[in-house]
Write a structure and sequence with these properties.
By secondary structure, the chain is an alpha/beta fold. It has seven helices and five strands, in the order ααβαβαβααββα. It has a three-stranded parallel β-sheet with strand order 1-3-2, with helices on both faces. Strands 4-5 form a two-stranded parallel ribbon. The model has no long low-confidence stretch (mean pLDDT about 95).
Length: about 220
């Protein structure tokens, strides 16, 4: 969800105004996804690298995330939408961690749509942690090295139980992956738009889906 700060700057606003607008866009995108039958939707909300941002901006993002979850929790429950966190909770403010845990627990049995919130998430960190867990279990004799394959490795990632993404959308013209789902995106289609995230409305989202539907997905093979 790129471009919140740039969107605000172009309008003479503080960066946090762009983030506030971006949060409202998340709500709209979740509704659209639910309405058209999408089963999984992942938002990259805060990366492990984002701690480098100014302290007042980081503090705002922490409070804004907590308030957003609290405000939307009833709607998630009513809409049969599950919230799933991917990333590390330990480094987040205690109240935010509890809020995320509670929302995930209360919605875990919902089935219409799963919304994965990548907050304090970094893909390299995720892969390293998975490798450490597997190495530890091999050391204790739980299983052998020969039994490790891609399917097993995937079960040790934060995204276990969530299928690999079909489509990656990057707003504001960014042309990089930015340490996001490096393992899982191996065959995802990319869609890049110059629109900043606060301007990525329902029409823009449906445009991205329409473009995706035109793609020929060969997964390394040839067209039939």
């Amino acid at each position: 969800m790129d471009g919140n700060g740039r969107w605000a700057k172009r309008r003479g606003l503080a960066r946090i105004e762009g983030h506030a607008k971006g949060l409202r866009r998340i709500k709209e995108t979740i509704k659209t996804a639910s309405d058209i039958g999408i089963k999984y939707l992942t938002f990259f909300a805060f990366s492990t690298e984002n701690w480098k941002r100014p302290a007042h901006e980081v503090d705002f993002l922490m409070r804004a995330c907590e308030n957003f979850i609290k405000d939307e929790l009833a709607g998630l429950v009513k809409g049969d939408i599950a919230l799933r966190h991917i990333g590390k909770l330990q480094e987040l403010p205690e109240s935010l961690g509890r809020c995320i845990d509670r929302a995930c627990e209360l919605t875990k049995n919902n089935r219409k749509l799963t919304v994965a919130l990548a907050f304090n998430y970094g893909s390299r960190q995720e892969i390293v942690e998975a490798a450490k867990k597997i190495a530890s279990e091999v050391f204790t004799g739980a299983f052998s090295c020969d039994s490790i394959d891609e399917e097993m490795f995937s079960r040790y990632l934060y995204t276990t139980g969530i299928p690999d993404p079909d489509l990656l959308i990057r707003t504001s013209g960014e042309m990089r992956i930015s340490n996001f789902l490096l393992w899982q995106l191996c065959y995802a289609e990319f869609y890049v738009t110059q629109k900043c995230w606060p301007d990525f409305d329902k029409r823009q989202f449906l445009k991205a889906i329409s473009e995706f539907q035109k793609r020929s997905r060969r997964f390394g093979g040839l067209d039939g």
